[in-house]
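Whiteboard transcription, Tuesday session. T.W. wrote the structure tokens on the left side:
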């Protein structure tokens, strides 16, 4: 219960941060991706700030024996780059570039009632369901892991 509550609080803080920074606005994201037009570098500053805060937090947390709300740290161990990773990254990037919406902000902007957000979220859910139906679990995933 405590773990889920901590996740909920983190999600709310993340959503508020996205809203304050303007990163829920698809036009802002598309402006960042428009290198040869009216390029808007503000997304780079938001990402840079997030990486900085994460890096400091990681330094503090990495000194702990275990996380506050779990039995062990959940750190990915795979380091290989395969076709599934590359194709997933390409699909993610294409979707982000075409719609100007990333999955995190997509959930946040549902609260604003934008039709585009509902369409994107529905497409995202369909994509997840298609993946689960066709790919299931990764053959390289450790026992007990879910895709």
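and on the right, the sequence the group agreed on:
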């Amino acid at each position: 219960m405590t773990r889920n509550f901590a996740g909920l609080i983190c999600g709310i803080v993340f959503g508020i941060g996205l809203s304050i920074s303007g990163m829920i606005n698809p036009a802002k994201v598309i402006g960042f991706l428009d290198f040869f037009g009216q390029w808007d570098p503000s997304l780079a500053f938001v990402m840079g700030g997030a990486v900085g805060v994460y890096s400091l937090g990681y330094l503090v947390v990495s000194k702990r024996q275990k996380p506050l709300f779990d039995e062990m740290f959940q750190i990915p161990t795979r380091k290989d780059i395969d076709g599934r990773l590359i194709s997933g990254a390409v699909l993610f990037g294409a979707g982000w570039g075409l719609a100007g919406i990333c999955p995190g902000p997509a959930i946040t902007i549902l609260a604003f009632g934008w039709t585009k957000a509902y369409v994107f979220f529905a497409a995202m859910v369909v994509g997840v369901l298609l993946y689960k139906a066709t790919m299931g679990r990764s053959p390289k995933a450790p026992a007990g892991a879910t895709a």
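Someone added at the bottom: The longest helix spans residues 2-21.
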